[in-house]
Amino acid sequence: MQNRTLNQFNKNTSAMQVEEPVVKPMLPWVEKYRPNKIEDLAYQEEVVQSLQGVLKTGNLPHLLLHGPPGTGKTSTIIALAKQLFGPDFWRQRVLELNASDDRGINVVRNKVKKFAEQIVAKNPNPGFLCPSYKIIILDEADSMTNDAQSALRRIIEDYATTTRFCIICNYITKIIEPLVSRCVKYRFKSIPENEQIERLKFVADSESVTYNLDALKQLVVVSGGDLRKSVNMLQSSSTLYEKSINKKAINEISGFIPDEQIEDLVSVIQTKSIRSVQEECTRVIQQGYNIEQLILQFLDVVLATDTIKEKQKAKMMEIAAYTEKCLIEGSAEDLQIFNLMAQCQRIINEN
Ligand SMILES: Nc1ncnc2c1ncn2[C@@H]1O[C@H](COP(=O)(O)OP(=O)(O)O)[C@@H](O)[C@H]1O
Ligand SMILES: [Mg+2]
């Protein structure tokens, strides 16, 4: 009622004034469908089982979570924090720093240390264990410098009674050994296709998106098994295609090159005509595809082609790797793609 009066007032004060639509902020689906409890996590049973113990006792060691992107590492520690401290209170007890934050040595010495020093009260939130420590999450720690990691090592030791650390990374080899040895390590497994599809179905159904199985399968393929990528892509494609998606829509939005196009390239290198190779390359280049994506998909199809011998495949991989290096160094795309295809043709015709 009050709103209406206000709107009427606005209309009366200026004939030109346009009523602002009330826009509800749209939460990214990756956040909306982030598991709230560790037991909601798909396919990481060993991790979940082991962390259930923490929820019973409140004894949390320093953690190191590692594994491929989009497998639930960040979700795990956030869910654990929510379950330990309560859904409203956990933010006060958690400092989360990821790759978009500056985490150079100065930040580690100042911000992290300052937060680590604070002493917190036990059990201020009834109904939750709320143990008397805070958690510092260093997400995507692969990108932290060795100096910053070294500075952290001392802080971890000095403040262990008030603060627990959770280091998250894709590659454990990027973390310095003294940090690794101070943590309990959990490896996150790649999530198999069927589990990913189940998760995508759940999100799509909850958002009333119409889809077919092919579309979901393609989402898994183009996102390389990264659930964050596939959920994000599901959201953008369903926004763009008005809540109805199919394989073609997914290809369009992801820049994935149609299978037929790649298959044409693979058949042309199996002929003896360099002219045909050149014509096919020109056709592909005119389509404006992303060349690196093209090479990756080309190699996938080559690997799956039985008529090409193993030894030939190995040689082709080597040349493709060199091509990628040249492209990174700024070499002309059309020349590189033509060179790669011509050499692949030569390899096939040699033996
Ligand atoms: N194991 C999983 N179970 C359920 N959802 C997952 C899982 N892994 C990833 N997701 C989905 O992908 C998104 C990103 O996951 P996240 O935990 O940030 O991945 P990571 O930190 O391993 O890169 C989450 O919001 C969730 O929707
Ligand atoms: Mg993460």
UniProtKB/TrEMBL annotation:
Keywords: ATP-binding, DNA replication, Nucleotide-binding, Nucleus. It holds the Pfam family Rep_fac_C. Residues 59-192 form the AAA+ ATPase domain. It is found in: Nucleus. It comes from the Eukaryota. GO terms for molecular function: ATP binding; ATP hydrolysis activity; DNA binding. One of its GO terms (biological process) is DNA repair. InterPro entries: AAA+_ATPase, ATPase_AAA_core, DNA_pol3_clamp-load_cplx_C, DNA_Rep/Repair_Clamp_Loader, P-loop_NTPase, Rep_factorC_C, RFC_lid. One of its GO terms (cellular component) is DNA replication factor C complex. Belongs to the activator 1 small subunits family. This is AAA+ ATPase domain-containing protein. It comes from Paramecium tetraurelia.
